[in-house]
């Protein structure tokens, strides 16, 4: 019996984007509790290019032990193609989206992917697949920060640093849903109109006027940038305020403590079909918008990674899988 195949993008060696190769590979089969999804679109996320580089930015003791060849990608939107044993909540033909098996290995840069049934949610009815694939990791990161770590209790002034990016543009909207009285967005000047359109009350162009020079008395700083200079934002936070980092950064904890500022632990996003279903409801109700920076065909995944590494994204990068013919059975 001939083995079913599909087209996918595989990483054959750690390194630059050109290590991503579009080729024919065996099609996976769903096991117990799993669903086979015919992928229409796949999102591109920072962990994808961290993995492509061999996780060189992760401390050696914490690096996943992954060995090429690998298929990257965990954000998908598509249609249920087959069910594994024991799956009753889905039917073939259902439109779904999800953050598949994260943290952990998934294989979203492909025509088909196997996902635990519980990691999927019905695709928002108001979104096309290319838009839905832009949602899972970034929006779940924002949602889990706001409604789990912060427990949805936000009745204050919130500063979102890196507000135009994938996670940032969802955060600016979800803190408003959670009750923030004022939302301040920090990004480069070209994002001003975009962020004001998302409902930001005040926009700060960091390339012209650094936030630490003009913003004061913030109750909550959510920093999606981090890095060695993250401590520069300490003056923006009031005594008794708090900083919630999304990425690692040097916030000078001793100095922060002297200023009465608490720094919360970084929270690792987790796959959750139930959280995604809540996000889908907000999206379909018009309370959360999805921004797309750019869309690339699946075979141009290397170009998508090159775009990602240039930075200054406005929303998410997506790979369009459905626009190409399916491989043979």
UniProtKB/TrEMBL annotation:
Pfam families: ADH_N, ADH_zinc_N_2
Protein name: NADP-dependent oxidoreductase
Record carries keyword Oxidoreductase: yes
Annotated GO MF terms: oxidoreductase activity
Keywords: Oxidoreductase
Claim: Chloroplast is one of the keywords in the record: no
Coiled-coil zones: none
PANTHER family xrefs: ALCOHOL DEHYDROGENASE RELATED, RETICULON-4-INTERACTING PROTEIN 1, MITOCHONDRIAL
EC class name: oxidoreductase
Chain ranges of the Enoyl reductase (ER) domain: 15-319
Taxonomic lineage: Bacteria, Bacillati, Actinomycetota, Actinomycetes, Kitasatosporales
InterPro entries: ADH-like_N, ER, GroES-like_sf, NAD(P)-bd_dom_sf, YIM1/Zinc_Alcohol_DH_Fams
SUPFAM superfamilies (UniProt xref): GroES-like, NAD(P)-binding Rossmann-fold domains
UniProt EC number: 1.-.-.-
């Amino acid at each position: 019996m001939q083995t079913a195949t599909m087209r996918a993008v595989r990483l054959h060696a750690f390194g630059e984007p050109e290590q991503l190769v579009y080729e024919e590979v065996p099609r996976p089969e769903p096991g117990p509790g799993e669903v086979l999804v015919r992928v229409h679109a796949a999102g591109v996320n920072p962990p994808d290019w961290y993995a492509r580089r061999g996780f060189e930015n992760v401390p050696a003791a914490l690096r996943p032990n992954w060995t090429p060849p690998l298929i990257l990608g965990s954000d998908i939107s598509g249609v249920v193609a087959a069910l594994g044993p024991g799956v009753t909540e889905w039917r073939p033909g259902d439109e779904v989206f999800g953050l598949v098996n994260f943290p952990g290995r998934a294989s979203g840069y492909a025509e088909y992917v196997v996902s635990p049934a519980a990691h999927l949610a019905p695709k928002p009815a108001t979104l096309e697949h290319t838009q839905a694939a832009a949602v899972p990791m970034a929006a779940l990161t924002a949602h889990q920060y706001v409604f789990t770590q912060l427990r949805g209790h936000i009745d204050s002034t919130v500063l979102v640093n890196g507000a135009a990016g994938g996670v940032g543009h969802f955060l600016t909207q979800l803190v408003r849903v959670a009750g923030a009285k004022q939302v301040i967005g920090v990004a480069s000047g070209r994002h001003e109109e975009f962020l004001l359109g998302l409902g930001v009350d005040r926009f700060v162009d960091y390339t012209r006027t650094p936030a630490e020079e003009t913003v004061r008395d913030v109750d909550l700083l959510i920093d999606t940038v981090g890095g060695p200079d993250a401590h520069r934002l300490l003056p923006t936070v009031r005594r008794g305020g708090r900083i919630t980092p999304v990425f690692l950064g040097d916030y000078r904890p001793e100095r922060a403590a002297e200023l009465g500022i608490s720094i919360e632990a970084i929270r690792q996003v987790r796959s959750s079909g139930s959280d995604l279903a809540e996000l889908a409801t907000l999206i379909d109700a018009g309370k959360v918008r999805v921004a797309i920076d750019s869309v690339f065909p699946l075979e141009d995944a290397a170009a998508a990674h090159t775009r990602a590494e240039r930075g200054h994204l406005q929303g998410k990068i997506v790979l369009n899988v459905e626009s190409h013919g399916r491989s043979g059975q």
